[in-house]
Amino acid sequence: AALLALEAAHRAALLAVRAFWQRHRWAHATQAPAAAGSCAPSADGRFFALGAADEGRAGVSVWRDGAPVVHYRAPAVVTVVAVDASGAVAWTRATARRRAPISVANVRSHGTEVCSYRPCFATALAWSERGTLLIGERGRLVEWREGRPDRVLLARADAVDAVVTALAVCGCIALVGWGDGAVHAVHVPPAPLVHAYACAYHGAYRMREPCGDETRAVAVEAGVCAAALRHCVDVWADECAHTLRLGATVTALCLHGGWLLAGVGAHEGRVELWEPLGGRRVGALAGRGAVVGLAVVGGALLRAAA
Length: 306
What we know:
The structure is a single chain. The chain has one helix at about 1-25, and strands at about 35-40, 45-50, 60-65, 65-75, 80-85, 90, 100-105, 115-120, 125, 135, 140-145, 150-155, 165-170, 175-180, 185, 205-210, 215-220, 225-230, 230-235, 240-245, 250-255, 260-265, 270-275, 280-285, 290-295, 300-305. It is globular. The protein contains 1 helix and 26 strands.
């Protein structure tokens, strides 16, 4: 009887969410005059960094609680951005083929003051909970803290030219997606450690083998990990795994409150809501342009489109 009651409550919750999604449509609020080229939310959802895809407006705009805070100019189009809950923001115009420095600033303490980190082939950035910057490069994942040497958290001995295409952090877990389809989970302890120590303090676990396709996006929250290939999303939780078939190109992922949000479609920009563990599609919202980023800010869904 208890199990039946729980199942009925769960089904009622699903129906309520589905009805909500069917009743509502996008309330568009233009937050930037140019299309988004790269974007990233902070772990708590309060900050959102948006890199412009327009050469004439190159730079990074930082938003807090849905309102613009500061805009940092850049000499060229920003390719990767990252922001954390303290207001630290990092960005670069590097690619897998072009070396460029990483710029770092803090919205709260430094305002418009920008520091520059060494040039590298950075293709993904994310802040850890202890304030270090995780940098995805060709064949490796590096942790950086100002004034200390780099520490390699993960190195691909099997594919030194593999490129990190997606990176997400939650708690002490960093989920790394690669250009050959492989996915790794890396343990990043929340307590600060001396960077000169060896990598024995970290564990790396391969969750998906290389499959020849690119990992389009990754997301992690409360023990649930998700990684997207072209038309599907692999979900891992509590030593079980299954695949969600979305039937169209997946461009962005977000896990929030036990739900999986997926940007689907190369042009139409549809956002689908899934129950990741049960593998059920709950609803969808239509939009314009390809979705390049998703975040939940103060209970509202923020969608960045190119």
